[in-house]
Every structure is written in structure tokens, then in C-alpha cells.
Amino acid sequence: MRTILTLIATLLCLPALAQEGVEQPPVPQSRPAGLEDVAPVEAIRPAWTIVDRSAGLLVPMPRQRPGEAPETAAVPAVEEEASPEAETPDAPKPAPDAHIAAPEVPVPPRVYQVACPAVLQGKVEARMLPPVADGQCGAQSPLEVSAVLANGRMVPLSGGITTDCGMATALPEWVAAVDSYLMGRENTQIAELIVGTSYMCRRVNSASEGNLSFHAFADALDVTGFRLEDGRTITVEGDWAEAQSAGGRLLRYAHGAACSHFTTVLGPEANAQHHDHFHVDLGCHGKICTARLCE
Ligand SMILES: [Zn+2]
């Protein structure tokens, strides 16, 4: 009985519910006052310019940057074709625009890979040099290295060397190995690395013909000896021959250690040209550049 009464009451109330809009679409309400200030959609669209009314093509105009004067002549002017009568074969052509004319002086090559990890990490004291371009010789991003990090301190070179990032990376590791040897066996350290030729535009062994030396690419260094903190100076020329002397042992250790850090090491045993220095470089040996030349 109660169920029947409830059903009747519900049927009687249906028109009223419909009028209250339960199933009706919401009536549009006026927007809050703040939203009236929002720019209409059209105002934030890019400006469109009809460049070909017949085809109806639309091209978006570039947006104006802050502080930039608005472009008044946004539509590029269409150049009128010169009439055939006005152009004669001998008529001088207008000078090319200065902004696109080829420069008379060649633009120097871009310096690639200016960042060298050894420099960033403080393993060498170095400054960037401008690119070297000397015929077939040259270096894109040479550095002038004046000191290398070894066992927590900077070891100065006897003179600044012009070299590349690869050599600047390998050199401190080698100097540190020699320095550790001296600390362990001689109770001293390297006060200065005595260097010879670094970059030089020449052929192998300074011959008149043949392959260019890696010195010609700032990828090689000649080291002539070590000045030690105990006052001694050990040189390849003066101390190599006495193999059992302290200097001879140091030089042989240095030569062997260099073979772990460079791909080419040439000393007095290699040939007469190297009787007074170690030549070290990072040249490619073997099919995949993993072979080493250690003489
Ligand atoms: Zn050399």
C-alpha cells in the first residue's frame, strides 16, 4: 500500500521536477566581471596575412618581440619585373649587397672542441691559442700548456708548449708516474719538466721529404730531461748512457712509463736523432690505432 502511494506521489511531482531543470541544459549565466577583461580569442591568434587572395593562402606573420618596433610594412613588397625593353645586355648590373658579398679576406676556420677536459679539471695550466693553419701543418684547437698536475701540485714546464687536448691529457698522467717513482726511490720530486720542440711544421726527423711529423699537428712533444727538487738535473743526453746510475734508471723508467700514456715513444735506442730527447706523440699505429711504437 505504501509503495503504491509513493508511486502516485512521484508521478504527480514529475512536471515540477522538469520545470526545475534537472534534465534540462544549463541556462547560460553572465560571466564574472573579471573574465570580461580577457582578450578575445581573435586577439591572441597570430596575425594572418593573405598573400594570394585568389588561392586563399594564409601565411602567419612573425610575432613581435618585446621592445621591438612593430613592423609597419609586414607584407614584403613584390618586385615589379623589369620590362624587356628596359634591360639591355650591356647594362651594368647593380653591385651586390654588402651583407652577402663574399669577403675578400678568408674567414678563419671555426675553433672546434674548445673545451678540453684536462683544462677543465685543472690537470694542466693552459690557455687557448688561435687555430694554426700553415700549409699542410696545423692544429684546429691548440693549447699553450705551461704546467701539469702531478701528485697534487703543479709541475712547471721549462717553457710553454703548443699542443692539443690529447697531449694535454696524457702528459700529466705520465709526469705523475715519473714523479711517483722519484718519491719512492730517490726521495725527491720533479721541480721542472725540461721540454724541447712541441708544434713545428716539419717532416719526420726533419727530412726534406716524406711524411709530416706529428709535431706538425701539435700532437707531439720532445722532452729532454727533468730538473729535480734536490737540485739535480737529469738529461737524456747526459744520463741515458749510464744505465745503472740513478739518472739512467730514472730515464729508463720514464721511457717505459711513457709507452703506457702515448702511442709513440722514441728515445736514444730508436735512432741517432733521438740521442738527446724522448719524443712522445699520440699518432695512430695499427689498423685501429691501438698499436704502440715504443723504442
Ligand atoms: Zn719529436
Give a description of the structure.
- It is a single chain.
- 23% of the residues lie in helices and 22% in strands.
- It has helices spanning 2-19, 41-44, 117-120, 165-185, 236-239, 246-261; strands at residues 48-52, 57-60, 124-128, 132-134, 137-139, 143-150, 153-163, 190-195, 220-228, 233-235, 264-266, 278-281, 293-294.
- It has a domain at 117-294.
- The chain has 295 residues and is of the alpha+beta class.
- It contains 6 helices and 13 strands.
- The strands form 4 sheets. Strands 8, 9, 10, 11, 12 and 13 form a 6-stranded mixed beta sheet that branches. It has a 3-stranded antiparallel beta sheet with strand order 3-6-7, covered by helices on one side. A two-stranded antiparallel sheet has the order 1-2.
- α4 runs antiparallel to α6 (246-261).
- A hairpin with a 4-residue loop joins β1 and β2.
- Zinc ion is lined by residues 197, 215, 220, 222, 279.
Radius of gyration: 40 Å
The total of beta strands comes to 13
Task: Describe the global form.
Answer: globular
- Can you give the helix content as a percent range? 10-25%
Largest β sheet strand count, sense and barrel closure: 6 strands, mixed
| Average residue pLDDT | 76
- Which structural class fits the helix and strand makeup? alpha+beta
- Our estimate of the beta-strand percent is 15-25%
Oligomer: single chain
Q: Would you identify the regions where 5 or more consecutive residues have pLDDT less than 50? A: 3-89
Small-molecule binders here are: zinc ion
Count, helices: 6
Q: What is the string of helix and strand elements?
A: HHEEHEEEEEHEEEHHEEE
- N-to-C terminal Cα separation, in Å? 115 Å
